[in-house]
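User: Please fill in residues for this 159-position structure.
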C-alpha cells in the first residue's frame, strides 16, 4: 500500500461527507430538530447499558463540561436520562429514553436523498465500481474491528 492510496481516501471521503452529511435530525414524534452533534451523542448511548458522562466526553474528544451541557439539553428534550449506577452509587450513568432510542434508530450520518443524487451522476458501470469499492472498504473496516485493531491503534499500539 502506498502513501498515495491513503491520501486518496483522505482527499475523497471528506468531499463525500461534506456533500451528503445530514445537518440535523428531526424527531418524528415531537417534530423537534436536533443538531448533528446531539444525534451523535445519542448514537453513543444505549437504553440498557449505562455510560458515564466522563467516559462519553473522553470518547468524543470534548471536555466533561461541554458534554454536560449537551447532555443537559438532551435530557430536557426527553432523549437522555441520568441514573445512579447500580454497581457504584457515586457514579451517574447516562441512558437513552425511548424517544432517544427512536432518534438513534432513525439517525443516519449521510442523507439518503443526497447520496441518491450523487450516485445518479455516475453511469451504471462507474456506479457499480464505486459501490463495490465502498463494500470492500467497509469489509476491511469490519475486519479491523473484529480483530481488535481499532482499540490497539487508539491506545497507541501497532495495528
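Assistant: Residues filled in for all 159 positions:
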Amino acid at each position: 500500500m502506498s502513501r498515495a492510496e491513503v491520501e486518496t481516501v483522505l482527499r475523497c471521503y471528506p468531499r463525500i461527507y461534506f456533500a451528503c452529511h445530514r445537518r440535523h435530525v428531526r424527531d418524528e414524534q415531537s417534530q423537534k430538530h436536533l443538531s448533528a452533534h446531539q444525534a451523535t451523542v445519542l448514537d453513543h448511548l444505549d437504553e440498557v447499558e449505562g455510560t458515564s458522562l466522563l467516559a462519553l466526553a473522553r470518547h468524543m474528544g470534548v471536555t466533561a463540561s461541554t458534554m454536560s451541557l449537551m447532555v443537559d439539553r438532551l435530557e430536557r428534550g426527553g432523549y437522555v436520562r441520568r441514573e445512579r449506577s447500580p454497581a457504584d452509587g457515586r457514579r451517574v450513568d447516562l441512558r437513552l429514553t425511548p424517544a432517544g432510542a427512536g432518534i438513534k434508530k432513525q439517525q443516519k450520518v449521510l442523507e439518503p436523498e443526497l447520496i441518491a443524487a450523487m450516485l445518479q451522476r455516475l453511469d451504471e458501470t462507474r456506479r457499480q465500481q464505486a459501490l463495490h469499492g465502498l463494500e470492500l472498504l467497509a469489509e476491511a473496516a469490519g475486519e479491523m474491528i473484529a480483530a481488535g485493531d481499532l482499540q490497539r491503534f487508539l491506545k497507541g499500539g501497532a495495528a
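For context: Strands lie at 24-26, 33-35, 51-52, 80-84, 92-96.
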